[in-house]
Write a structure and sequence with these properties.
The chain is mainly β and 395 residues long. It folds into 4 domains: 106 residues, Sandwich (Immunoglobulin-like), CATH 2.60.40.10; 88 residues, Sandwich (Immunoglobulin-like); 88 residues, Immunoglobulins (Immunoglobulin-like, Sandwich); 85 residues, Immunoglobulins (Immunoglobulin-like, Sandwich), CATH 2.60.40. It is 2% helix and 53% strand. The protein contains 1 helix and 32 strands. A 5-stranded mixed sheet has the order 2-8-7-4-5, with no helix packed on it. A hairpin with a 2-residue loop joins strand 27 and strand 28. The longest helix is centred in the first third of the chain and has 9 residues.
Length: 395
Amino acid sequence: MYLKLRHTGMVTAAALAASLIATPPAFAAGSVPKVFAETAEFWVGGVTPVTFYPGQGQDMSAVTGLTLFADGTEVGTDTAAPWGIDWDTRGFNGLVRLSTRATTDTGTSTTDGMTVDVDNNAPTGLTVRFPRRDGYIGQGGELAVDANDDTFVTGSELIVGGVVVSSKDLAGGGNLDLGWNVKLPNGKTDMTVRVRDKVGNVTALTRSVTVDNDRPVITGSTTAGSAVRGSFKVTLTGYKDASPFVTFEALLDDPAMQRSYGQEGSPRTLTIDSRDVPDGKYTLGWRAIDAAGNEGVLRRPLIVDNRAPAVSITKAPKNKAKVKKKFTVTAKATDTYGIAKVQLLVNGKVVTTDTKAGYSFTVNPKKYGKKFTVRVRAYDKAGNVRYSSTRTYKR
């Protein structure tokens, strides 16, 4: 008894134990041995070396010839040790059973050997996608590569100027994508992307590409000041680059999160609603991307503040008091990100404005009717407003 493990077979523990303890039958002198054919790999293609080995306990010294069959078709003969046949697998495809006919002076014996998977077809459907726009690439960019195969694709290469500048081997998994790891001046050049399958069949794609290594030069504007509330607009006002414009994105980042507004095909003016994020300090950005994937970026600080300030009258005659002479109204206003101004309102109209803390106003009752109202309002730097309570006076 002999045990042969193949790519497609399974052996149970019991069968393995039995094979190890079983005593093989003695090989009778003058018998034709069983001879098995095998290849180094389960997947084969092209001209593939085939080697031979005897069954367990059998002797090949009397063999005068070995003939190899592939699915019953004779494909080669060897007449002397070391036994081996180069099998031209062209004309075969898929699973193929190898058999060996051993010949001695006393007769012949044919034995089935391993089954192999023949693949002589190159990978198909090779596609190459560029970072942003077809045919444009820049230093550090990456080409997305895909292909199909009867077995599976195991590697890819990028060739520029006759030199392999990037490669992938999928022995450990991953994808076929290739980095543009070559320094070339801006302009047109040719490239070749080549993929290979498990057997070594190769498919290649050669094409012209435009190299652009430069970032776009951009300018931008916004309706937001140093602090903002509610919705505001961010506009890409200028773009200068050798490659076509692809997309504009507005950025609103803080240390915890990066936020991007807009996508390919977006207009050059975008609206951001600051109420979608918590109040706080952010970095506002403009990002323009060219056809090669190069990015031009501008940044500036921005405070998002959608909470109104606190304001109150701290010193003034009591509500409903009678007043005849000029009197002072003192107010207090606070905000996390600063107060822009505090205004005095008499009968609902702005009388005066103060922009310095310790906000103080003088009211002359003679300028108003026998009965009038007074209150203050505060604006923070984002434009949020809050009013104090109203006091009514008589004179």
